[in-house]
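hiii, so i know i said id send this last week but things got crazy w the move. better late than never?? heres the sequnce for the chain we talked about at the cafe, plus the structure i predicted for it. fair warning i was half asleep when i ran it
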Amino acid sequence: MKRLALVPSEPLRATMAGIGIRYLELARRLPAHGLAITLVTSGAAKDVPEVPEGVRVRAFARGKLAEVIGDADAVLAQGQLANDVLLELPEMPAAIDLYDPWLVENLHYAERLGLDPYRNDHATWVLQLTRGDFFLCSCDEQRLYYQGLLTALGRVNPTVITRDPDLEGLIAVMPFGVPDSASEAPMASGGEASQKPILPPASPGERRILFGGLYDWYDPWPVLEAVAAREQGDWTLLLVHNPNPGSTPQARLAEVETWCRARGIWQQQVKTLDWLPAARRYDLLREVDVLAATHQPSLETRLSLRTRFLDALAVGCPVLSTEGGAMSRLLVEHDAGWVVPPGDAGAASRALEEIFADAHAKKAGARTLIESFRWSRVVAPLVAFAQAPRRDETKEAFAFSPETRTPPDPPLAPGQRLRRRLSRWLGKVRPGTTA
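okay and structure toks below
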């Protein structure tokens, strides 16, 4: 039996975001495919939620990865920790998980945090794309994007193309998955205490719209304007504080709070929730009437497959998105959800009215779409690599690492310096709490 090590960048714990959930799900499902799994966390091993018997859980230890995962036949690594894997264990066949295009996401923080995050992210991508043996991404749009980067770095070369014309052995699509059946998306887990509903009882006629985590690349204004325009005040929009504010500051959430306070709807028609334990993410989706997450056209939009939409579709929650990007394309192709033009509050309002009038209108298309995202199907490329691990020897002959270049950070005005300090400080203290 082949042993595969899983090394995500996010600490694995009860409360975690998409990357952590992705790796916990992989650890739970890959043993059924004949693989022995070592799951590595950058947090405390005792904090890792329940995994199947036989899955070994170990804590990440920089400089000691030979002890942590040296007995594996191959490794799947993600984020910054993949650098350590590649540098400490250069002979181990390594799959690099590019599901989350975090370099593109982090570009939104340059104004507040300077160019250091970009310098680090760019150098990291160069390292991983030149030294990894196999790559995974979330959708066809991402795959084409990464193929261009791999070509520029010498990984798409005459030898590779001759033996693998479509590059399936170099980079494959492995999106986030959903349970293989509705019964696997439990109402709740963890005992009687977790059976309590997440939200208070709805008011008569109240409709609840879940946006979820509000990152800086989203455009919440069409939905906000639709909610604010309701004279009846019967629509409630729910926003969620993300669990990793240090790495993903929520400046957009602060802007929304200011906007809502000026209109008297903050914590009235627009409310915030703390991030839920991963085991209860489906519960919240069952307690709302729709998931609505809107955006403006951007590179991030084009490259992202919104995990929150997959979770919603898996439990039959209607979804509303903006045109552009992989998820919106899939929703249109399968008639699985509502898609509106960017920045169009009127269209968003009309779509919400349609959803509240007939929540089941797109249900058949949603069921068809979600079938292709069952975990048992999406893991196939990783399973194939793990069962027959391989190193891409062409990287030694063709790959090269260009220098990461940026201009120096511009001089900061006093106000900018203060905002940067505040951004770093708020990474330690979530808005709404005290130090």
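btw The mean pLDDT is 90. thought thatd interest u
miss u guys!!
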